[in-house]
Amino acid sequence: MSEHQTKKLDMNRRGMPKQLPEVRKHNFSEVALGYPLEIAVEEAKRCLQCKKSNCVSKCPVEINIPEFIQAIAEKDFSSGIRILKEKNCLPAVCGRVCPQEEQCEEACVLKKKGGQIAIGRLERFLADWEAEQTKLEMPKILPPTGRKVAVVGGGPAGLTVAGDLIKLGHGVTIFEALHRLGGVLFYGIPEFRLPKVIVSREVEYLKKLGVEIITDYVVGKTRTVDSLLEEYDAMFIGSGAGLPWFMNIPGENLNGIYSANEYLTRMNLMKGFLFPQYHTPIKKHRKVAVIGGGNVAMDCVRTAQRLGAEARIIYRRSRIELPARLEEIENAEEEGIIFDFLTLPIRYLGDENGWVKGIEVIKMELGEPDSSGRRRPIPIKGSETIFPVDAVVCAIGNSPNPLIPASTRGLEIGKNGNIIADEETGKTSRERVWAGGDVVTGAATVILAMGAGRKASRSIHEYLCSPGNW
Amino acid sequence: MHKLVESKMIVPNIFLLTLEAPAVAREVKPGQFVILRVEEDGERIPLSVADWDRVKGTITIVLMNVGYTTDKLASLKAGASIPTVVGPLGNPTEIDKFGTVLCLGGCYGMGSLFPIVRGLKEKGNRVVAVLEARSSYLFYWEKKFEEISDRVFYITRDGSRGYPGHVGRLPEIIKFSGESVDRMIINGCTFLLKRGSDVSRESGIKTIVSLNPIMIDGTGMCGVCRVTVGSSTKFACVDGPDFDGHQVDWKELLQRRKMYLEEEIVPLRTSRCEEHKKESR
Q1: Is the dihedral of CA A212, A215, A220, A221 positive or negative?
Q2: Is residue A212 assigned to a domain?
Q3: Residue B270 reports pLDDT greater than 80
Q4: In this complex, is the C-beta atom of A227 within 8 Å of any C-beta atom belonging to chain B?
Q5: A217 contacts chain B (CB < 8 A)
Q6: Domains of chain B, with CATH numbers?
Q7: Do you find a cis peptide bond into B88, omega within 30 degrees of 0?
Q8: Does A244 lie at the interface with B, CB-CB under 8 angstroms?
Q9: C-alpha to C-alpha distances, A338 to A20, A298, A304, A332, B265, nearest whole angstrom
Q10: CA of B188 to nearest chain A CA: how many angstroms apart?
Q11: In this structure, are A404 and A367 located in the same domain?
């Protein structure tokens, strides 16, 4: 008899305590409160400790999931966090924003009966537990190799590369364009989903490991890739998807129409909600429409509501096609966000001072599936209507940032402006240069960027151990 | 941190700041800008670079005191430090052998215009500089302009120096001078850029303007600096800041620049009150 059959199956996936919708929609504090210790242990004890663990193979950074869960079940949290950090330098972040339902938890054998282990919540539990300890356990760092790596961009991909390579004894310098590290973790994801103190803590940890950090430094402008390569043995580019898309419809440059990046940056990086204590203003609008259906759109619409607006999502397909995580959609629904599905903006109307005052939309119906496999939305003639808004946030995606592709010789660029990099190693067409994350794939998730960083750091390490062997 | 080496008011309400920023000083070219933050809670604002010293690692900025952040900057004394000076951002002004170039500058734009004139002269162009101000006491760097330009003309609103009136006098100036202008470059406030472009449109002179919309990151990420040029939307930070003045949608740009007018004043008022309270205690 295997252990599986002897152990009584506990299918009760422990719920995540959250701030109540009525309360949280008026504040910027974190929505999900985290498992209390006993609940975490109970949840961990449900894990069947499968011999062939599907969850691990579905994890982009290959965390040894059953082992860290076992440690929680045994209340040996310091071992748990050590196991976690072997593969993931940002567990507090990933435990919050990873789409576990499509990755590790999707592969859990208990999923068939709807009782998959809450792996993400347990990951978060361990990271938060560690943060409360007075003594931070430092990992083993190999003796210095004398090799130097430049990491361009302090987002999830770059932080992963830095964390991996510093432990292997290489010198690492991160060059960040903004004044704070974290990339999208800092400027993009709102406080109520990922408190900035957590991002800062993870960055501080890297500093303690010896990573050198240079902020306010735009590689491609302040100094070119070519010039940096004279000083560094290898370079990783993780400069992200920083060029927002607009729909190119009439009136889109009216005042009060933002890109998601601008809206979120004003809020998160520049702390606009604390204006005038912080000096970057953000307008308090009354009726805000957010265009798009991804996680970023959910972040924008929930931010707008917390600033006191009547906030709605305008999405051209239906609810099941929403690309956002189900958890975020449900959170938004609970908070009273209005969803206008099968609706497409076609024009914005302005007042005499150039401020947006209305939006004209057309209703859509779903036709045959398109290349993405989702049913193509088709406009219904004659269904145009106009409704009033005083702000619009366009959250329909980003292109890779153009500064490095435009200023670097010999770097192969794809048709969307993305850097071409090998999927397994992250190697670009330029010798000694690796790339990963959104600048390669276009806008994607935090964990995929970290996964790309992991693969690249492995390849960089191999190269640094036998240079000349590109 | 970036140390302020020098700070002075050069004419009423216009300030010259020299800052330590070796990485910027090493790379900067005429027409580029930096983004700076004056304190940790501060906003990010773009300012054109008016000069630099690659050896000393310093850059010079000419700014007008118009809102909260520029007021803070203007009030800093030499020796103080600010947390962010990032750049050089934007594309440099195109400098080539064009023939005769008319360089038009007004208020803070006279500063950033200067290195462009210098660059144009180095390339062997004939440069006619035209400086515009409300009154004669608002000109600065005239000597520098007179030293390197082939000719310098002045326009003042009150007629206290050079031609009385505004940029509308430009066609007369050109006619009087007998110069055949191949290109015009304008640096200054948005009104000057617009009016200068209106004037040159009739005579068909290619006109390059350096736009100064609101920005946050200055690297293409936020899109607040978007401007309609011809029939397409451009981002001034990565596609500009220089554009063809005859193609810019000026009405839209002027409206977009006013987006936070109210908020620029609010913290100024409240902080002034706070300072006043402190003093009176």
Answers
A1: negative
A2: yes
A3: no
A4: no
A5: yes
A6: 2-89 (2.40.30.10), 100-257 (3.40.50.80)
A7: yes
A8: yes
A9: 18, 11, 12, 9, 34
A10: 23
A11: no
Closest residue in A to B256 (Cα) is: A255
Cis, bond preceding B241 (omega within 30 deg of 0): yes
Could you tell me if A252 and A214 lie in one domain? no
**Euclidean distance between CA atoms A227 and A280, whole angstroms:** 34
Indicate whether A371 and A278 sit together in one domain. yes
Closest CA–CA distance from residue A16 to any residue of chain B (Å)? 34
Residue whose entry in the numeric block shows the structure tokens 């946030």 = A393
| Of A236, A248, A178, A185, nearest in space to A211 by CA | A236
From A270, A277, A279, residue closest to B216, measured CB to CB? A270
Residues A352 and A458 in one domain: no
A9 and A35 part of one domain: yes
Query: How many domains in chain A?
Result: 3
Is residue A229 in a domain? yes
Q: How far apart are CA A171 and CA A147, in angstroms?
A: 6
Tokens of residue A341, six digits: 């599905």
pTM of the complete model:
0.91
Query: Do both A285 and A236 map to the same domain?
Result: no
Q: Contact A246/B263, CB-based, under 8 Å?
A: no
Nearest to B188 by CA among B157, B210, B218: B210
Q: Is residue A444 part of a domain?
A: yes
CA B210 from chain centre, in angstroms, equals 7
pLDDT tens digits along A32-53:
999 999 999 999 999 999 988 9
Judge if A387 and A434 occupy the same domain.
no
Say whether pLDDT at B275 is over 70: no
The pLDDT, as a whole number, for residue A2 is 46
Q: Phi, psi (5° rounding) for residue A94?
A: -65, -35
Residue A138 lies in a domain: no
At residue A3, the pLDDT reads 47
- pLDDT tens, position by position, A204-228: 999 999 999 999 999 999 999 999 9
Instruction: Examine the fold and report which residue of A103, A132, A161 is the final residue of a domain before the chain moves on.
Output: A132
Considering only CB atoms, B216 lies closest to which of A246, A252, A265, namely A265
Alpha-carbon span B252 to B268, nearest angstrom? 26
Segment A56-82 mean pLDDT: 94
Provide the pLDDT for residue B278.
Answer: 59
Answer yes or no: is the ipTM higher than 0.95: no
Final residue belonging to a domain, choices A396, A413, A446: A396
Domain with A261 in it:
246-396
